[in-house]
């Protein structure tokens, strides 16, 4: 499992971001997430030597993903990579993802056993839910491309549906639980929002996203009373369907 290091000018900020991210995964599945923040617990700044030490502690051999807050934190992180052993340096990836959203997404992906590059890709999608909800008047910019879903594929598939009965809808924590349920299985899982059961069939094909990505699930805007629809195909489709049924019965971990 990869490790993560949070580089911030503020120790309290880093600690709070880590606490939030770890809330999304169970204690037994959590990756190592270490802060390298502030000149000390009360003084703002960054320390390349402290970052290098955190990189060494976070590494288990699978790589270390680094999340940063502001521009100078990037410079300190880059300097820290020069301080560590060259073998470790090759396994360090400094992500341009947003700190809080990116950290949450990366922790969920790491807990599902995804590799360094996949976790970085999930972190980069961290703003997708906000952009989907609020729009992006500046244009799409240079964003990570979502996986293209071939709806015409003829491979047999299973279908899971569940009416969301959570008061706040499918928010970050249950989305992380859903993504974790399918993320470590050999299955293709495509989720969509069919809206309330009383709304009738949609005249257009609903948008589908990767159900193994918590950040992508959040872009669906599933609210209380909406119907979650997940298509499953692949060797572990039966296991994924069973896992989703158990998860839904437990209200996506929100009981």
Automatic annotation (TrEMBL):
Its EC number is 2.7.1.121. GO terms for biological process: glycerol catabolic process; phosphoenolpyruvate-dependent sugar phosphotransferase system. GO terms for cellular component: membrane. GO terms for molecular function: phosphoenolpyruvate-glycerone phosphotransferase activity. InterPro entries: DhaM, DhaM_N, HPr-like, HPr-like_sf, PTS_EIIA_man-typ, PTS_EIIA_man-typ_sf, PTS_HPr_His_P_site. Pfam families: EIIA-man, PTS-HPr. Residues 1-131 form the PTS EIIA type-4 domain. Keywords: Kinase, Transferase. Residues 157-255 form the HPr domain. It catalyses: dihydroxyacetone + phosphoenolpyruvate = dihydroxyacetone phosphate + pyruvate. General (non sugar-specific) component of the phosphoenolpyruvate-dependent sugar phosphotransferase system (sugar PTS). This major carbohydrate active-transport system catalyzes the phosphorylation of incoming sugar substrates concomitantly with their translocation across the cell membrane. The phosphoryl group from phosphoenolpyruvate (PEP) is transferred to the phosphoryl carrier protein HPr by enzyme I. Phospho-HPr then transfers it to the PTS EIIA domain. Component of the dihydroxyacetone kinase complex, which is responsible for the phosphoenolpyruvate (PEP)-dependent phosphorylation of dihydroxyacetone. DhaM serves as the phosphoryl donor. Is phosphorylated by phosphoenolpyruvate in an EI- and HPr-dependent reaction, and a phosphorelay system on histidine residues finally leads to phosphoryl transfer to DhaL and dihydroxyacetone. Homodimer. The dihydroxyacetone kinase complex is composed of a homodimer of DhaM, a homodimer of DhaK and the subunit DhaL. This is Phosphocarrier protein HPr. The gene is dhaM.
């Amino acid at each position: 499992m990869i490790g993560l290091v949070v580089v911030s000018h503020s120790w309290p900020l880093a600690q709070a971001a880590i606490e939030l991210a770890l809330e999304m995964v169970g204690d037994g599945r959590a990756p190592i997430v270490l802060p390298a923040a502030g000149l000390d617990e009360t003084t703002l700044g960054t320390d390349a030597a402290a970052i290098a030490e955190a990189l060494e502690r976070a590494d288990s051999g699978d790589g270390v993903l680094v999340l940063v807050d502001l521009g100078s934190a990037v410079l300190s992180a880059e300097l820290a990579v020069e301080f560590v052993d060259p073998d470790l340096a090759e396994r360090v990836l400094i992500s341009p993802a947003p700190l809080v959203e990116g950290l949450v997404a990366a922790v969920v992906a790491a807990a599902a056993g995804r590799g360094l590059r996949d976790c970085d890709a999930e972190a980069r999608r961290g703003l997708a839910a906000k952009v989907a909800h609020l729009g992006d008047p500046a244009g799409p910019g240079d964003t990570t491309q979502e996986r293209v879903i071939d709806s015409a594929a003829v491979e047999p598939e299973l279908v899971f549906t569940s009416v969301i009965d959570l008061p706040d809808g499918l928010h970050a924590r249950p989305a992380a639980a859903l993504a974790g349920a399918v993320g470590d299985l050999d299955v293709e899982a495509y989720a969509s929002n069919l809206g309330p059961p009383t709304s009738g069939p949609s005249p257009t094909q609903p948008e589908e996203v990767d159900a193994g990505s918590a950040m992508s699930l959040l872009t669906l805007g599933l609210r209380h009373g909406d119907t979650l629809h997940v298509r499953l195909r692949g060797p572990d489709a039966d296991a994924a369907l069973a896992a989703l049924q158990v998860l839904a019965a437990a209200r996506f971990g929100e009981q």
